[in-house]
Amino acid sequence: MSGHSKWANIKYRKATQDAKRGKLFQKLVRAIIVAAREGGGDPSMNIRLKTAIERAREANVPMDNIERAIKRGTGELEGVQYEEVFYEGYGPCGVAILVEALTDNRNKTASEMRTLFSRNGGSLGEAGCVSWIFERRGMIRITGEGLDEDELLSAALEAGADDVKNEDGEFVVYCDPAVFSKVKGALEGHGFAVSGAEVGMVPKSTVSISDKDDAHKVVRLLNLLEDHDDVQNVYANFDIPDEILEEVSGV
């Protein structure tokens, strides 16, 4: 899983660059709209909305934008209606790829996804072709000098987490999405520094890639998919050595 941990850090730095262009703001606002539409506008009763708001605030999305997005989701304000769609397929080297998108034109987005896959060594598949490889998990990243691993494990398990893993020098706490907010709040209450938190798809098995050219092809496709305006998240089951991943990612 070291490759996935490193990839998360790379994506975070890239997201900071996207924020300067406004692209990240647009994606985060869409997530809030859909979360509010599906679960209501009260974040205390809608965990998905609460998480979307937290991500938006971490990226410095203005509160006015967040409040308008909630109202658009609940129907208090008119606006474009987005729907959540998943696209599944395989990339170079047989890497399974799951794309989470929010779109107002399902046919257009599907066509563009198919083109991105086919032109970059992959193929878009039918619904269900790779989703079985992934499971939805809460992931909370903890960093800090002199961190006591036993203390972290004890606090995480007491709060309802399933596991704590040391991934490339940082700790990742895994939990069921239903207790995500509870676990995150408990860890923060114990004084642990949360560097990132999300509910996402985690692969149950991975494809090892050690050839630099193959790794470059995989990363290129993932970057192109993530750059698409409708795409919220891209999940893949690659395992690329950190040093190769850094080189092909240009970090």
Describe the oligomeric state of these chains in a short phrase. Answer: single chain
Mean pLDDT: 87
CATH architectural type of the domain at 2-74:
Orthogonal Bundle
Query: In terms of structural class, how would the helical and strand content be classed?
Result: alpha+beta
| Biggest sheet: strand arrangement | 3-1-2-9
Structural commentary:
It is globular and about 45 Å long. 47% of the residues lie in helices and 24% in strands. The protein is an alpha+beta fold and 251 residues long. A hairpin with a 2-residue loop joins strand 5 (163-167) and strand 6. The chain has a domain at 2-74: Integrase, N-terminal zinc-binding domain (Arc Repressor Mutant, subunit A, Orthogonal Bundle). Helix 1 (2-21) runs parallel beside helix 9 (242-249), helix 2 (23-39) packs antiparallel against helix 3 (47-58) and helix 8 (212-227) crosses helix 9 (242-249). The chain has a four-stranded antiparallel sheet. It has a four-stranded antiparallel sheet with strand order 5-6-4-7. It has helices at 2-21, 23-39, 47-58, 63-74, 106-118, 149-159, 180-189, 212-227, 242-249; strands spanning 83-90, 96-103, 123-124, 134-143, 163-167, 170-175, 193-203, 207-208, 231-236, 238-239.
Q: What is this structure's SSE topology?
A:
Elements: H1 2-21, H2 23-39, H3 47-58, H4 63-74, E1 83-90, E2 96-103, H5 106-118, E3 123-124, E4 134-143, H6 149-159, E5 163-167, E6 170-175, H7 180-189, E7 193-203, E8 207-208, H8 212-227, E9 231-236, E10 238-239, H9 242-249
Summarize this, please?
Helix content is 47%, strand content 24%. The chain is built from nine helices and ten strands.
